[in-house]
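quick q for whoever's on today - can somebody do inverse folding on this one?? i tried earlier but teh output was garbage lol. tokens:
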């Protein structure tokens, strides 16, 4: 399936900004199950400084906001050919060792709620890692209702789990925390999803990948109760949201910021 993606992110401020630096991870790369046919990033109110691959092989771009600007817009657009691999990415070609994805981060430290969820599938995971992770995905979906506006990008997995509600980012980080607690390497993936009968979306998507012996990396989208197929485009990965977020930034001054995101994913 060929997907056409247009993703525009605009930061507006109530006064000119003296200095701001943004780190972008918004460029997909050709990999297992996907081929990037074309991709471009257009900036307004900012200038690109350098582009490089980070330690997870994410295409990373640093941009500096033009001095005196009161808004910056980032528009990414392109086409990606995607193949249905039933979520199985395989062994991968990354530089990071598997043990790195066993390490919890502050965002994924499991508390009593996540440990309880993990305990429910411990025996199943010992018998079959793949079956155990499918059961874990279902257990998380049952325990944590998908509801927008209840968590922030900085909300730790345990907090979302104990509250029993969150969005795809929270589902992914809870899955990662629980899988690591069970001894399986796991990582966070940010990307895009072609939604049924929905063109205009409010945000990009996120899911988890877990290392399964004999298969390699396998994706699990807890929010949609599926393994990623040819509707999904992988953009960036990391140990948690913070390492795979589309945009990170810092700025000087006390200007009030407003964020506007426009996203279209079409076949």
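ok took a stab at it. sequence:
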């Amino acid at each position: 399936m060929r997907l056409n993606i247009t993703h525009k992110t605009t930061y507006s401020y109530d006064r000119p900004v003296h200095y701001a630096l943004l780190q972008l991870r918004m460029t997909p790369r050709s990999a297992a199950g996907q081929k990037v046919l074309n991709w471009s990033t257009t900036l307004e109110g900012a200038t690109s400084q350098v582009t490089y691959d980070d330690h997870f092989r994410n295409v990373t771009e640093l941009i500096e906001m033009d001095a005196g600007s009161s808004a910056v817009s980032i528009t990414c657009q392109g086409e990606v050919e995607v193949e249905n691999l039933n979520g199985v990415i395989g062994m991968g070609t990354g530089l990071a060792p598997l043990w790195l994805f066993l390490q919890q981060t502050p965002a994924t430290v499991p508390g009593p709620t996540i440990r309880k969820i993990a305990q429910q599938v411990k025996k199943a995971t010992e018998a079959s890692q793949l079956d155990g992770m499918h059961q874990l995905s279902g257990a998380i979906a049952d325990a944590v209702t998908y509801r927008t506006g209840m968590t922030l990008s900085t909300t730790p997995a345990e907090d979302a789990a104990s509250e029993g509600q969150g969005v795809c980012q929270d589902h992914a980080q809870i899955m990662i925390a629980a899988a690591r607690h069970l001894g399986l390497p796991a990582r966070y993936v940010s990307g895009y999803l072609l939604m049924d009968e929905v063109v205009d979306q409010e945000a990009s998507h996120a899911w988890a990948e877990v290392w399964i012996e004999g298969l390699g990396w396998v994706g699990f989208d807890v929010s949609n109760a599926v393994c990623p197929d040819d509707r999904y485009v992988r953009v960036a990965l990391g140990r948690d949201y913070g390492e795979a977020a589309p945009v990170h930034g810092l700025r000087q001054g006390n200007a009030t910021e407003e964020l506007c995101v426009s996203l279209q994913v079409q076949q």
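fwiw The chain has a mean pLDDT of 95. also The radius of gyration is 18 Å. so keep that in mind when u check it
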